[in-house]
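Morning. Coffee machine broken again, so started the prediction first thing and wrote up yesterday's gels while waiting. Chain of 168 residues, entered below exactly as on the submission form.
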Amino acid sequence: MNEATPQSDRAAKASERLGQVIATMPASNELAVLAEILIEQMKVVDAQHHVVMLMESTDQKLTTTVQALRDENAQLTRLVVQARQAFVGEVAAKAADQARRAAASEVAEELARLRLAVESRDRAITTRSSAAAMRSTLSSLGAQIGIAFCAGAAIVWMAGHLAHALGI
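Came back before lunch.
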């Protein structure tokens, strides 16, 4: 832009010099009309120069604005990815917590049944049949704990797979 001002001054000085040269020339209608046309053309060139300077200034401002928008968009994208990762992690943690609670509830129920069975068992039952019942109860309890553990692991795996599929 610093170069534009001297060119503008030169154009204005040139039109002044042209006016002075024409003033010193002998008067003629054709020459006067031609001089007026030349002066108007120089004014148009000067005005075009100012338009170019304004266009360059506007272009620089727009470029700066577009770059700022790109930077903001990149930051927003990073925040969205972080929020998505946090959400998937929170979902996985809640799923694991729910599976753990369900397994703990089932274990507590089974232990209550086992305690009732032990308290109410009849002494007439033989050792062999009570041991078989105890093994059956314990194997049922073990199976339920195993199922609850597998369900929790499957939920955590699905959350991880979902996070991977979403590109997180």
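Residues 4-165 form one domain. Going to sketch it on the whiteboard this afternoon.
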